[in-house]
Design goal:
Helix content is 0%, strand content 66%. It is built from no helices and 13 strands. It starts with a strand and ends with a strand.
Length: 208
């Protein structure tokens, strides 16, 4: 039996650029290379018929994440309607790992190409509706699959509404549904595992 904790820490810098036309905005962002640290400690207990033994282990793992690139655009054919596209490239396979101790279950992350689009419709000065869709591969590759260059695809569908109070700020209510299906050789009945997550959020935005 294993029982313990993990603490993650990281510091990153992002550089972005935006260029605005009359009905079109273009943007790009680079997340500079950074280091993700994981400090862990756990207790390993082994029970036998004669005795109970406990061993305490601790260490720090490091993942040197390469630069991540993101590009996007927003098109406004009308004042009340906006359409957005986004592309994100994370070359995780170029990262390096430093593990505190050997781990036979460890698998390096694979590259991630993510695509997203969204739309916003402003009904009046106070109220607007939003919707979006994101296609995002996972960073892991299941055991026993033929492809190894990318992970199983996750889809995220989101809806939201914004209520604006002018100089007093805005209230945003949103919901998104995340769906992931991947091959699982250890799942004897269907050989597939499915994950679905529904999130709800409410926030307040005030701009200076």
């Amino acid at each position: 039996q294993e029982k313990g904790t993990s603490d993650f820490s990281s510091f990153g810098i992002e550089i972005g650029l935006q260029y605005h036309f009359e009905n079109l905005s273009l943007g790009a962002r680079i997340s500079l290379p950074k280091i993700l640290k994981r400090k862990w400690n756990y207790e390993l207990s082994e029970q036998t018929a004669a005795s109970l033994s406990k061993n305490s282990l601790s260490g720090e793992d490091r993942f040197e994440i390469p630069a991540i690139y993101e590009f996007g655009l927003v098109f406004r054919p009308k004042e009340s309607f906006a359409f957005s596209l986004n592309y994100r490239y994370a070359p995780y396979s170029k990262g390096t790992y430093k593990l505190a101790r050997p781990d036979s279950a460890f698998r390096p992350w694979v590259d991630q190409h993510s695509y997203a689009f969204g739309a916003r419709y402003q009904i009046n000065e106070m109220f607007s509706l939003m919707a979006g869709y994101r296609w995002q591969p996972s960073v892991f590759v299941p055991d026993g699959v033929a492809y190894t260059e990318h992970g199983p695809e996750k889809t995220i569908v989101s809806f939201g509404a914004r209520l604006s109070f002018g100089s007093l700020g805005s209230i945003i209510v949103a919901s998104n549904l995340q769906s992931l299906k991947y091959h699982d050789t250890y799942f004897s009945n269907t050989n597939y595992a499915t994950e679905k997550v529904q999130n709800y959020s409410i926030g307040y935005v005030y701009q200076f």
